[in-house]
Amino acid sequence: MTGPHSHAQAPARPLEGRKLLLCVGGGIAAYKSLELVRRLRDAGARVQVAMTEGAQQFVTPLSFQALSGQPVRTTLWDGAAEQAMGHIELARWADRVVIAPATADLLARLANGHADDLVTTLCLATTAPVTVCPAMNHRMWLHPATQANLALLRGRGVQVIGPEDGPLAEGESGPGRLSEPDAIVAALAADPVPAAAPDRLNGVRVLISAGPTYEDLDPVRYVGNRSSGKMGYALAAAAARRGAQVVLVSGPVQIATPPGVRRIDVRSAAQMREAVLAELPADIYIGAAAVADYTPQQVSPQKLKKTPGSHTLVLELVRTADILAEVAAQEDALKLVVGFAAETHDVEKYARGKLVDKHLDLIIANQVGIAGGGFESDQNAATAYWADGQRDFPGTAKTQLAEQLLDLITERLDA
């Protein structure tokens, strides 16, 4: 019985809010990791699971999905996930990586920096602390090679939990038994990750436009541009990871929707304008889309045919609405309006002109038509301009550039 004067307390949740990536190795003890997921969640942790190929011989991914409530990753060759560099996102998401069971082979590959499957690649790509929970035959555990690998991992700051001494699957007994789930939870709680400061973008409503627009000429032809949408999608994914409420208005692209992002698909500049304005108000607008400046005056209801004897075709184009300027002029003023400028020459001149003319808070400019950057590339370099400053971003992967740009956007949000 409880009431206003009751002293009953809720069960302790020592891992409340922690983001744990559980990597399951290929040993018979993998079945215990199912219970470990349950205990980690009971302790308040958010858990995602990655499995080696060997682990799937003992326990199915579906079992872990049912217990974690999250999709389970099993391979680097998942086309849908890897289109958005899913393994890198997963490595960044975790504030601790836990490997249970950690087999002798897996420990050896981790010690030597291998990245030949999903789990080892995740461990090499993460900056989060790593915990290994060894489980193997006692002779394998006591072998000098295994002990040398453990010493190497400990020297790099890897936490080691277990193994315990007891009966093993082979009918023998000795050190090598996977620690019990409760013991693993207790050890993780005793070695906490320093609490990170709340991200400035947590809960902030971010509206992003990305990709090209296609302006139809007739039922089979259109006027378009070479924007791939990769930069806008990378920004949307990075903002969602930081806890922002992200809405992505996307032109026609072949990219998977980032986790935690609400996506609205459009085709033309007019449709993009309508979708963007309908999603206001927002705290931040990032206009990363390459919106057509002109659209055909008329769209032919039938396919345009070649005119006999004529070697030219004259198209009458009209200006499209300036979405970026229209957003910046909203009475319900946003906290920050960010534009993009893709230029072939005189980058700073044109970027600063757009910054002033469109009344933007920040503009990100890059040069297109060069190798290793701009449209369609996975790499990019940029310079950000604001009223009284600028910052250069050397060439890097667009996913990394997105993180750097969001750091700057966060700074300017409080400027």
In short, what is this structure?
This protein is α/β, with parallel strands linked by helices and 415 residues long. It is 32% helix and 23% strand. The chain has 14 helices and 19 strands.
Comma- or semicolon-separated keywords:
alpha/beta, 32% helix, 2 domains, Rossmann fold, elongated, 415 residues, Flavin_trans-like, 19 strands, disordered N terminus
Describe the structure.
With 415 residues, the chain is of the alpha/beta class. The chain has two domains: 19-190, Flavin prenyltransferase-like (Rossmann fold), CATH 3.40.50; 205-413, Rossmann fold (3-Layer(aba) Sandwich). Helix content is 32%, strand content 23%. The protein contains 14 helices and 19 strands. Helix 1 (30-42) crosses helix 9, helix 5 packs across helix 8 (144-155) and helix 10 crosses helix 14. The chain is elongated, with a radius of gyration of 27 Å. CTP binds at residues 293, 303, 340, 354, 358. Its cofactor is Mg(2+); FMN.
